[in-house]
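Exercise: predict the fold of this chain.
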Amino acid sequence: YWVGKLGSFTAAGRVLSLPKSTVSRQIASLEQRLATRLVERTTRRLALTEIGQRFLAHCERVMAEAEDA
């Protein structure tokens, strides 16, 4: 959720109080479980794939529903 929302492993790590490497490994693990690429990584930037954008939208709905509960 945070990687997609903030567009950065570093920023997500700060929010989650985790090292950037841990956040990156967790995203890679999620991608492996889902058998799809959620994030396009380059040395300079990170971008969500189309599927990653849809997954983020779903996560945002889930988070909103959890907060409403």
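Check your answer against the key: The longest strand covers residues 39-41.
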